[in-house]
Specification:
about 25% strand; five-stranded mixed sheet; alpha/beta; about 300 residues; 14 strands; D-Maltodextrin-Binding Protein, domain 2; 3 domains; Arc Repressor Mutant, subunit A; elongated
Length: about 300
Amino acid sequence: MDTITRMRCFIKVAEHKGFSAAARDIGRSKALVSKYIGELEDELGVRLLNRTTRQVSLTETGEAYYKEAVEILQRIDDLQASVQSVHGDVRGRLRISAPRSMGDQMLNQAMMEFLKEHPEVVLDLRLEDRFVDLVEEGFDLAIRVTDLEDSSLIARRIAPFRTVVVATAEVIEKYGLPRVPQDLAERPCIIDTNYRFKQNWSFGQNGQRATVAVKGPVEVNSAAAAREAALLDLGFLRTPLFFVAEDVRAGRLEVVLEDYEPPERGIHAVYPHRRHLSGKVRALVDFLVGWFAAAKKPEADAR
């Protein structure tokens, strides 16, 4: 049994804080994983883990060893991935998570074009409006359209992301054009509950951020349903521009409060910090960056 294999087992036990979960993750028995850790500790001549009947925790020495081991194995994995990406074909299963609204609107097309270029890739695309745990749920990559707060993830921006408030001309005429964000508090609003802050819409101007509590006749966890409500004159809608860009260009919806839009964010491809970027994942990310740039999506001028 080589040291690198023992190190990988140790890292899994440390991350899962237990032998059973680590064993399931790497597909080995709990007894075998425990044996590997014991051999590693014997080899080093130190105790790396505190073991109780309920939990496993790192010793002070174990914490220091864990940090160094992660870096060493990351460099090894990166080297292997680099060689494979240069000399190997883009093939195998890709498990991707993305928001349903983005998939239905544009990502599906990009993904299918990628598959056409790489026929030996098997795509498992999960469209759902929740943040998946990439490691626990076994995803290679996630597409996210929000601020990134998880420092355990590495992100690459693949396209800009603009949030707008829109309404039909009929709604604007009936309720009046909102001049400042606070005006929305007195107007009917359509609330997409997929968003973290739901009824609290954020705006910005001159570097300052303001939040407005809104209410209205519709609360729904579907961007498509929220768009339909807006098109049927039920109120003002806050939504990603890419989802209503065609409606804006066609004049079915109008953008309001442009001067108060929050700072432009980005659509990101994210993957776990400690997982090397395989050739197939790297190929997909590079493709998406090029695809969005060539298509000038999703932030084509819709004014």
